[in-house]
Structures are given as structure tokens and as C-alpha cells.
Write a structure and sequence with these properties.
This protein has 124 residues and is α+β, with helices and mostly antiparallel strands. The chain is built from four helices and seven strands, in the order E-H-E-E-H-E-H-E-E-H-E. The strands form two sheets. Strands 5-6-4-7 form a four-stranded antiparallel β-sheet. A three-stranded antiparallel β-sheet has the order 1-2-3, covered by helices on one side.
Length: 124
């Protein structure tokens, strides 16, 4: 069913609906059903009105959930022949950075694995 015409109160085709629903009438729509070969008239009404004030920016900040703190990521240098350490780091969820040739892992996990001495500076 397609809506071909949407009329506001006072426009042609809304007179009897405006008489019936008064100020509550928002729209009159004429929908057409080609399969059933019929026209359906629908109305949109106001059913409730209440006072409302937009939220202030501070109120929005209080209700907007904050993103979780992202873990601090560190780069770990692991040599090619250290396959056992590399396997532990991979199992902990580390990602390989091919450009810098280091493994990237959250600091918390690197400490848990006892790999603090393998952390390289950002410039390395």
C-alpha cells in the first residue's frame, strides 16, 4: 500500500476530518492498495500533550554513557628465535605490527606475563 497524498488540516480533502477531530488532527493520508483496488484514508491525531523542556547539556552528559577506558597499549620486542614467548603473547591476544616489527598488547597483560623488560619506547 502506498501513501500518495498527505494533507494538513485545512487543505482540500481534510474538511470532514477536521470537523470530527478538531485541533487534534495532524495529517490526513490517502493510501492506495493496487492489489485490493481500494483507497484507504488514515488520520494522524494528537492523543496526549504534556509540558516538556529540552535537556541541558549538563543533563545530557550525565545520562550519556561514557565509553569504557581503553587499555594502554604497549609494543613488545620479541626476537624471531623466541618462539615460546611469541606463542604466549599471541595467546594473550597480541597483534603484530609489521611496520614497527613489534607485538602490540595491553600493558596490563604484558605485566601479567612478566614481559615489562621487553616493552620498547614509542620511537623504537
Amino acid at each position: 500500500m502506498e501513501a500518495r497524498t498527505t494533507r494538513r488540516p485545512g487543505q482540500k480533502g481534510t474538511k470532514r476530518h477536521l470537523e470530527r477531530f478538531g485541533d487534534r488532527l495532524l495529517f490526513v493520508r490517502y493510501r492506495y492498495d493496487p492489489a485490493g483496488r481500494r483507497r484507504v484514508t488514515t488520520v494522524e491525531l494528537i492523543v496526549d500533550e504534556q509540558p516538556w523542556a529540552p535537556r541541558t547539556e549538563t543533563a545530557l552528559e550525565k545520562t550519556t554513557p561514557r565509553p569504557p577506558d581503553l587499555p594502554e597499549l604497549v609494543a613488545l620486542r620479541i626476537e624471531r628465535h623466541e618462539s615460546a614467548i611469541r606463542a604466549k603473547v599471541k595467546a594473550a591476544g597480541a597483534k603484530w605490527d609489521a611496520v614497527r616489527r613489534v607485538w602490540i598488547l595491553p600493558l596490563r597483560r604484558a605485566r601479567a606475563l612478566g614481559l615489562q623488560e621487553r616493552i620498547v619506547s614509542a620511537g623504537s
